Amino acid sequence: MAKVQFTRHLRLHFPALADVQVAGADLAELVAGLDALHPGLAGYLIDDRGSLRMHVNIFINGEILQDRTRLTDPVSADDEVFVMQALSGG
User: Fold this and answer.
1) What is the count of structural domains for the chain?
2) Residues of the chain with pLDDT under 50
């Protein structure tokens, strides 16, 4: 299972969110697995068309994902995934 880490800001919205290990052959399956563990998380990361929201970035082994639209980037059991949200304001 891939190791998934999150920024502290996402943990403010999902207090039970912690670094977890989730199975999935691609990023779409991984997000579905995360949502099963933390209901509502997928809606925060993915828009109503199934694409990654503009303010969210996901890195797999330090490389930003390639397919923001269908989330088809492959994920293997030994991958490290980092989920972050862009913040703005003053």
Assistant:
1) 1
2) none
